[in-house]
UniProtKB/TrEMBL annotation:
InterPro entries: KH_dom-like_a/b (IPR015946), OsmC/Ohr_fam (IPR003718), OsmC/Ohrsf (IPR036102)
Organism: Seonamhaeicola sediminis
Annotated PANTHER family: PROTEIN YHFA
Name of the featured protein: OsmC family protein
Length: 142
């Protein structure tokens, strides 16, 4: 198979999960669901995984293309269905690039390459959700 993750129950509804990176993380539900909020929420972790996967792609392409970017963020707004099992059926992913000399065309190309070719998590999300991508450029000098 390849990737192995072990998730251990810590009592109540809290878990510790391993990661191939060697960094473990804690998973817990919010108080409204009987947890203590002492860890990441599982479905929200999926959104972080999506942003992280695409973010790594874009950051690597920024470096490869030698683009001048001071910073960038990825905001995700996801809609959760109301019926069980609840899942994300709509996802809005917004890339925000900041800098004095942004090459908008090449940055858009980096986003497109991640979305259409490189990000495996994006491919998985597109199997069950309508994913909308927005790209915003914030030129500091303007």
């Amino acid at each position: 198979m390849g990737v192995k993750v072990t998730t251990k129950w810590l009592g109540d509804i809290r878990f510790e999960s391993t990661n191939p990176s060697g960094h473990n993380l804690f998973i817990d539900a919010g108080e409204e669901s009987g947890g203590k909020g002492e860890g990441y929420r599982p479905k929200a972790l999926m959104l972080s995984g999506l942003a992280g996967c695409s973010g790594i792609d874009v950051a690597a392409l920024i470096k490869k293309m030698k683009l001048d970017v001071a910073n960038f963020t990825i905001d995700i707004d996801a809609n959760l269905t109301e019926e069980h099992p609840k899942y994300y059926d709509k996802v809005l992913m917004s890339f925000h690039f900041y800098g004095d000399n942004l090459n908008e065309k090449k940055l858009q190309r980096a986003v497109d390459l991640s979305v259409e070719k490189y990000c495996g998590v994006m491919e998985m999300f597109q199997q069950f959700a309508k994913v909308t991508i927005e790209t915003h450029f914030h030129n500091k000098s303007v």
